[in-house]
Amino acid sequence: QVQLVESGGSLVQAGGTLRLSCAASGSILSITHMGWYRQAPGKQRELVAIISSGGRINYADSVKGRFTCSRDNAKNTVYLQMNSLKPEDTAVYYCNAKVVDYSGSYKDYWGQGTQVTVSS
């Protein structure tokens, strides 16, 4: 099994900065994609950013130019640098990893979620 351990969520003023991190551990042969989703109250979970093992990144339009996703393949860790935060960024942020295990199977794993609250 695989575990994702997140850190970095907190309360911050509008215009501020947070850096989220998520480290994957367990039975991992490789990770094809790692990324972040978020879910605000009453809304569906949405993609924020994903990054492939080769460094290709997709961002939600709402965060382009403000958020930067990166990863350290050697550490199985993904980061989300969040600048110029807005109240509408308030959500629970979930780490996601698409893992290839030693049987060759592809499986999705999720972190427990970390709360990001941006005050106006």
* Overall body shape: elongated
The ordered string of helix (H) and strand (E) elements is: EEEEEEEEEEE
Number of strands: 11
Helix share bin: under 10%
Strand percentage: over 45%
Low-confidence spans: none
SS field, number of helical segments: 0
Q: What does the largest sheet look like?
A: 7 strands, mixed
Question: Averaging pLDDT over every residue, what do you get?
Answer: 96
Structural class: mainly beta
In summary, what is this structure?
It is elongated, with a radius of gyration of 14 Å. The protein is built from no helices and eleven strands. The protein has 120 residues and is mostly beta strands.
Verbal overview:
By secondary structure, this protein is mainly beta. 0% of the residues lie in helices and 59% in strands. It has no helices and eleven strands. It has strands at 2-7, 11-13, 18-26, 30-39, 46-52, 57-59, 67-72, 77-82, 91-100, 106-110, 114-119. The strands form two sheets. Strands 2, 4, 5, 6, 9, 10 and 11 form a seven-stranded mixed beta sheet that branches. Strand 7 and strand 8 (77-82) form a beta hairpin. 30% of the residues are buried. The model has no long low-confidence stretch (mean pLDDT 96).
